[in-house]
Each structure stands twice: as structure tokens, then as C-alpha cells.
């Protein structure tokens, strides 16, 4: 069963065409690594999936929602899709637990006890069970990023999108966050992740999508990272090592 389908998605910003007909699909439980040089359109593709950007043409289907339909009910889409960025954007004046229960309480109208139980559960999943009552500034960058992942998981999404979530972190903190994502993959979460962590992509990705100048230039299993077919991917992989 496909959870995410993109068909010939095109997107321009003014005169600049950023996506030139991007198509791929993601089955339930699959992990997709979206890779490519800076400016190749990875973030735009990811943002189109969550309708943070509107496509110019083409189709996007996510968990039964037609994302390219102007009449899409955004609220319903967002219940099914979690997205985490490089910047964590936790509310500084709220504790970690308060950050996490916010959306389940306000969007899902969950009662306090139920939201708290979910917060405890997702914090345990990301290894932050003991940080519920801390404020974001009391946590390391890696811990804050894990808290941001927990906040997203608390909405119990069907698919998670990650956009370079470790790019701002040093190697040790990067490892902590990647382990959390690896755990999610093992638990069967469907994920699309933009990443520069080639070793990680090779290990956990079911599909690798290599973007170059707004097009999918190579697409396959993680084997394409070991044996690239095009000079562009060969060069990209060698630079990322
Ligand atoms: P990547 O994530 O692969 O680095 P992006 O999708 O962020 O690439 O960007 C692709 C191209 O689109 C870049 O040239 C970028 O400057 C441009 N771009 C992205 N977002 C916008 C925007 N909101 N307005 C104008 N140009 C944009
Ligand atoms: Mg980007």
C-alpha cells in the first residue's frame, strides 16, 4: 500500500523552476533517503508533501489525501504527516512535556491525562524520559532535536518527514539522533528523510532518491550509493564521505 505518491510534480518560484517533474512512491513502512547537492530541490519536494508549498502541476497523494487539490483540508493532512526540520523550534518558555502535549491537546482535543501518557511514551522512545520537566535551553542540541521528534510522534502520524535534522549537530549528537530515527525505522514507521549522512542512508534506506537540478537523477535501493550509475551521483557520494 502506497502511503506517499508523487506524480510528475513541478514547482517554480517565480522564474526559477525548482522541481521539473518529480515522481516516486513510498510504501507503508519504507524508509526513503532523499539526497542531492544543496539547491537540488530536496526541501521543496519534502515541503510539497506536507503542503508547506503548493505544486504547480502533478499529483501528490499522502495517506489518501490529495495534496495537490486546492480544496484539501490541511488539518486532516497534518494529522497524518509529521515533519521535523534542522531547527527544532521548541517553545522556550514551555517544558519539554508541555511542548509535546500542546498539539495533542489543542488539535486532537485529548484530555490532560491521555496527552501526558503519550508524552511519557514518546519521550521514552527518544531516550528523554528524564527530561520531561526540563526547559529546552537545559538540553543539548541533540536532546532538543530528539524532543522535537518526540513532539511530532505525539501526534501519531502515519508518515514522518525529516529535513536534514542532524545538520546543525556535532558528530556525537548526530549519532544520538540517528539512533532514534533508526529505532523508528525498525518499529515500522514510514519515513522520507533528506540527509547528508551517507553511511546512515546506506544502512537504513529502502529507497534512495538522488536529486540533481530539480530532477530525480538516480533512484534505487541503497546499492546505488555503492555503485552509482551517473558521474553526478558518483561525485556527490565521494564528496559526502
Ligand atoms: P535543497 O533542499 O536541495 O538544498 P531547496 O528545495 O531548498 O533545495 O531549493 C531549491 C531551489 O529553490 C534553490 O535554488 C532555492 O534557492 C530555491 N528556493 C527554495 N525555496 C524558495 C522560495 N521560497 N522562494 C524562492 N526560491 C526558493
Ligand atoms: Mg534543503
UniProtKB/TrEMBL annotation:
SMART domains: AAA (SM00382)
Domain of life: Bacteria
Coiled-coil residues: none
SUPFAM superfamilies according to UniProt: P-loop containing nucleoside triphosphate hydrolases
Principal subcellular localization: membrane
Location of the protein in the cell: Cell membrane
ABC transporter domain location: 4-238
Keywords, alphabetical: Amino-acid transport, ATP-binding, Cell membrane, Membrane, Nucleotide-binding, Transport
UniProt GO MF annotations: ABC-type amino acid transporter activity; ATP binding; ATP hydrolysis activity
Membrane topology recorded in Swiss-Prot or TrEMBL: Peripheral membrane protein
Record-linked InterPro entries: AAA+_ATPase, ABC_ATPase_HisP-typ, ABC_transporter-like_ATP-bd, ABC_transporter-like_CS, MetN_ABC_transporter-like, P-loop_NTPase
Assigned GO CC terms: plasma membrane
Record-linked PANTHER family: AMINO ACID IMPORT ATP-BINDING PROTEIN, GLUTAMATE_ASPARTATE IMPORT ATP-BINDING PROTEIN GLTL
Family designation: Belongs to the ABC transporter superfamily.
Protein name: Amino acid ABC transporter ATP-binding protein
Record organism: Aureimonas glaciei
